[in-house]
Design brief:
about 350 residues; mainly alpha; 11 helices; about 80% helix; globular; disordered C terminus
Length: about 350
């Protein structure tokens, strides 16, 4: 399965980033995106599930694995942001993205080779429906999935509105790329530190601290206006570092719970992937129509009221939603030993 979906991901990247067939760029885009995200989602589920098995073999294993895994993920995102643009200056944009696609496919092949024999074996018996029911019977696991949905909504809102906020609210379009890069680099650098904090203070306590920091940082972001791009770099670095806690410790908490329950990691991380992708879709589906009602349109010429609505949607609304996720997590007992389903 890993080989099949890995080949799908690599082929999709080639379709997506190699120069499109003349006259058919939209078709290449749609087909490439569909293949890439289908392959990526399946491979991500298997990859996260493998961490559950290896976490049982290491002291502090779930947090340690999650910290380095998410640092790798975020480093990859940062490199992917930089490489095509850097190569474009030398060999041109189309050739640069084509080279990026070929390099990505080659590195993916190497990663699949290195992971051979390390993918998890099935643990659940009685089929996928029985495994889903078994996971769903655990109240703490259900609440973790709900918290994951709440916690992913702010990320979805900021991801959807980031470019609009930088270009129209801050009036600093040239700073969107560097600020995004600073965000991901900070998140990658912080991920191992959050894993160490979890081993010292407990994953739940460390995650609550990260969520509280993110709320405070984004409340400051809501006050920024035209020309405040220097302060926005600090916001990007701080919020990236705080997001390292979300990306590292929520999956680690889920893995710990699965370990205690003796459940199939692939089934649960399939649900986890669905929750996170549903949150991204929900955020985009809610934010843009709401801003349209408020009178905001991407580009110059927006009123002060519509730009205020943009700032509230980008920073204040995510803070409120994240506060709800923080309260829900604080009220969820996770430390007691789980009974097997």
């Amino acid at each position: 399965i890993a080989l099949g979906v890995g080949l799908m991901l690599g082929a999709g990247a080639l379709v997506l980033f190699l120069p499109a067939t003349p006259g058919q760029p939209a078709l290449s885009l749609v087909v490439g995106l569909a293949i890439v995200f289908t392959g990526f989602s399946a491979l991500q589920i298997l990859f996260y599930a493998s961490g559950v098995a290896y976490g049982q073999q290491l002291p502090g294993g779930h947090e340690r694995i999650a910290g380095w895994r998410e640092a790798g993920v975020l480093t990859g995102v940062a490199v992917a942001c930089v490489l095509p643009e850097a190569a474009s200056a030398v060999i041109g944009r189309k050739a640069a993205f084509g080279l990026f696609a070929v390099a990505f496919a080659a590195l993916l092949g190497l990663a699949l080779w290195q992971m051979r024999g390390r993918w998890p074996r099935r643990q659940a018996t009685g089929g996928e429906r029985a495994a889903l029911r078994a996971c769903w019977r655990d109240a703490a696991l259900r609440r973790l999935l709900g918290i994951g949905l709440l916690n992913a909504l702010p990320t979805g809102l900021t991801a959807t509105l980031f470019l609009f906020f930088v270009e129209d609210r801050l009036e600093a379009p040239g700073h969107a790329g560097p600020a995004l890069l600073a965000f991901f680099v900070a998140a990658a650098a912080a991920a191992p530190a959050w894993a160490r904090a979890a081993r010292r203070f407990g994953p739940k306590r460390a995650l609550l601290a990260g969520m509280a920091a993110a709320i405070a940082i984004f409340l400051v972001a809501a006050t920024l206006g035209s020309g405040d791009w220097p302060a926005f770099y600090l916001i990007a670095i701080g919020s990236g570092a705080a997001m390292g806690a979300d990306m590292t410790l929520l999956p680690a908490l889920l893995a710990r719970r699965l370990d205690a329950l003796g459940q199939d990691g692939a089934i649960a991380f399939g649900l986890w992937g669905f929750v996170n992708k549903a949150a991204l879709a929900l955020a985009a589906g809610l934010a843009m129509p709401a801003l349209d009602v408020a009178g905001y349109q991407p580009g110059p010429g927006n009123s002060a009221a519509s730009l205020t609505a943009l700032a509230l949607a980008y920073a204040a609304a995510p803070s409120v939603i994240k506060a709800a996720a923080l309260v829900a997590l604080a009220a969820t007992p996770l430390e007691r030993e789980a009974t097997r389903c």
